[in-house]
Design goal:
The chain has 276 residues and is mainly beta. The chain has a domain of 180 residues: Beta Barrel (Porin), CATH 2.40.160.20. It is 11% helix and 61% strand. It is built from 2 helices and 15 strands. The longest helix has 24 residues. It is elongated.
Length: 276
């Protein structure tokens, strides 16, 4: 029994020594630090500056009032031009994940209007047989409120392209429309006829607006993204100006002039400041 116990003890010691030698051959254990991935999620604020490379509009129409008969007749400006290249906006939004975000933005732009219309009828106070060429000028201010949604298409080398769309409303406020009517020779000569000036009060209203966007963002600093993009926006037409004081006193009512829909193609540069 003593011999057997001695052999068993020797075998156990040999096994322990072999296990120690085998363990010494294993590579040392490397402890890796825990890495946490921070999801793109949270609030952001934005500011944008835009330049309209092209702006188009529908026809500007009007209704003339005949005080003698009480009838109205419709017409359109022969030519008209809207100007106003720059815009600016502020907004607040929320990034839901790496793909989707949405924001509420307010934008402002303004511009000038110039139109011209010719008529075979005489200017006010003009001689019979002459015509009248009328030039109209005004300006407008526009403020938009838009709800926008975007899809970010992935990030490569720090650049994140995106596409988006927005719906909202734009309030366009027109200043007074000032017209100057000049006599045009017809079957009779204008002679010493002078120009006739008339003032029409401007109107304001809200118009349905939609927008389509595409662009790319680049993180220039932690929590700061530079945004370069293109935006197409379409503002529905609406009321432009009312009747003159003389026409209103004679019984004219309602809106005299309406402007056509306004479309803008803009290049926009902005900053987005994130909270995550």
């Amino acid at each position: 029994m003593i011999r057997f116990d001695a052999l068993a003890l020797a075998a156990m010691m040999a096994s322990a020594c072999a296990g120690t030698a085998f363990a010494s051959d294993l590579p040392p254990e490397i402890k890796m630090p825990e890495v946490s991935v921070k999801d793109a999620q949270g609030w952001y604020v934005r500011g944008d500056f835009g330049y309209a490379v092209n702006a188009s509009h529908g026809d500007t129409s009007f209704r003339s009032y005949d005080a003698a008969s009480g009838d109205y007749s419709s017409g359109r400006f022969d030519s008209d031009r809207f100007s106003g290249d720059f815009s600016g906006g502020l907004g607040v939004g929320y990034q839901f994940n790496d793909l989707f975000r949405a924001d509420l933005t307010g934008d402002y732009f303004s511009g000038d209007y110039e139109g011209r219309v010719s008529s075979a009828l005489s200017c006010a106070g003009g001689a019979g047989g002459t015509g009248c060429s009328t030039k109209a000028r005004s300006s407008f201010k526009a403020g938009s409120l838009m709800v926008n949604g975007y899809v970010d298409l992935g990030t490569l080398a720090g650049f994140t392209p995106y596409v988006g769309a927005g719906l909202g409303a734009t309030r366009i406020s027109w200043s007074s429309v000032n017209t100057v009517g000049s006599c045009v020779d017809g079957t009779s000569s204008c002679g010493g006829s002078s120009s006739v000036s008339t003032r029409y009060p401007g109107d304001s209203d809200w118009r349905f607006t939609y927008a389509l966007m595409a662009g790319v963002a680049y993180e220039v600093a932690p929590n700061v993204k530079l945004d370069l993009g293109y935006r197409f926006s379409h503002v529905a037409g609406g009321d432009m100006f009312g009747y003159s004081a003389a026409d209103s006193a004679a019984g004219a009512g309602g809106t005299m002039g309406r402007d056509g829909a306004l479309s803008r193609h803009e290049i926009r540069v902005g900053l987005r400041i994130t909270t995550w």
